[in-house]
Fold:
Amino acid sequence: MVSLFLRGALRLRPPKAQRAPVLDLPLVLNALCWHPFEPLAQVELKWLSMKTAFLLAIVSAKQVGELHALSVSNSCLRWNSDGSGVTLWPNVAFLRKVLASSYTNQPIQLARFEPPPEEGRSKLLCPVWALEAYTPKKHKNSNIKAFRTWKSTVKPPIRLLYRFTIRH
Structure:
């Protein structure tokens, strides 16, 4: 009887779906070009991780689990010999939740973004440049997994960037 009441209550007042906030991408990308995310050579690993994970997420359109499976170990990361880009493979131990043979362990191939000089700060948004700065810093740590979780590396910069842009 209680279960019938609860089902009826849910039908009368269904829970509202939680919607993600609308992302103002130009605003977020602009904030990635300033402190604490730049200059890359002097950025703390925390900020560099956030910037690199965010840029990889938006350019690769990979699922959270696939981004989490990325590694900066030599077996999973190959730089093009001419420096024009990089190929990232998920860690071989990674298993997708839904196994589809056509998408299993697909590499992410990224080309270096070389904008014309008049575009100024656009180069600062290249995920290859960010990954190039991130890799040596990450190798100094014992944990070689590239990004821990979406929650800790991709969502925080969005909130943080909105705070920075409101102040500037």
